[in-house]
Design goal:
By secondary structure, the chain is an alpha+beta fold. The protein is about 20% helix and about 35% strand. The chain has 5 helices and 12 strands. The protein binds fe (ii) ion.
Length: about 240
């Protein structure tokens, strides 16, 4: 923790605060800094693990946060920042024949992506994705939200990049959240990143079950400009 903070400082990254004992639930030790576009990033270690029960067969309760996708006005710069400073590695890229490279999937461990960076009009949250126990639980969760009248943005379907399933919904604050499952695990020694053309329908939606990826989906995903850039949120 101390070594990383020192390295970031030398590289000119702005720290919000130096490594210290964290006062948030679970405690631990950590620090915060601003990324290249002003998002607040917190690094932590030794945070206590919350006691939790096992999720049973058929329960549409998320088992973990799967990944987060952020919009960036400078996706190449943002990708370079996370690769250089935090050790993320490129798993796959989505491109469009007219618009060029549009999304970078980055991994920090064997999961195909924990972070992805999408080209957008401004820095903002694209979506946060929650992993369900398996395919059955993912579909049950999707159906539960549909029955409850939650606005569906896109899905259900299975992406090619990461091979994970997707159902995107709008939360009460207008942020997009996703239910997913079966995200691919990559073999570090043999993986080669793909460049996928997402104007091919089977790239976004292998099964052909989702509504088409159109202006509506894209606009909802841009979200509002993050008003907290270079302003650390209160702890
Ligand atoms: Fe996702």
């Amino acid at each position: 923790m101390d070594a990383l903070a020192a390295r970031l400082l030398v590289a000119g990254v702005t720290l919000v605060h130096e490594p210290t004992a964290l006062q948030t639930p679970g405690g631990g030790y950590g620090f915060r800094f601003f990324d290249n576009e002003g998002r607040t990033v917190e690094i932590s270690a030794e945070v206590a693990i919350r006691r939790h029960r096992r999720i049973e067969v058929g329960e549409s309760v998320p088992v973990r946060l799967s990944h987060v996708v952020i919009n960036s006005a400078d996706p190449e710069g943002t990708r370079a920042f996370y690769e250089r400073h935090l050790g993320f590695r490129l798993s796959d890229t989505l491109m469009h024949p007219r618009m060029g490279e549009m999304m970078y999937f980055l991994r920090i461990n064997s999961w195909h992506h924990s972070l992805a960076i999408a080209r957008g009009p401004h820095p903002s949250l694209h979506h946060a994705s929650f992993e369900l126990r398996g395919l059955d639980e993912y579909m049950r969760g999707t159906g539960r939200l549909l029955r409850a009248g939650v606005e569906k943005i896109w899905g259900p379907g299975r992406h090619l990049a990461g091979n994970n399933t997707f159902s995107y919904f709008l939360d009460p604050h207008g942020n997009t959240v996703e239910y997913t499952t079966e995200l691919e695990l990559v073999d570090e020694d043999t993986w080669h990143p793909h460049l996928y053309d997402f104007s091919r329908p089977e790239v976004s939606d292998q099964w052909g079950t989702a509504n088409s990826m159109n202006e509506f989906v894209a606009r909802k995903s841009f979200n509002d400009l993050d008003k907290g850039l270079f302003v650390a949120p209160p702890v």
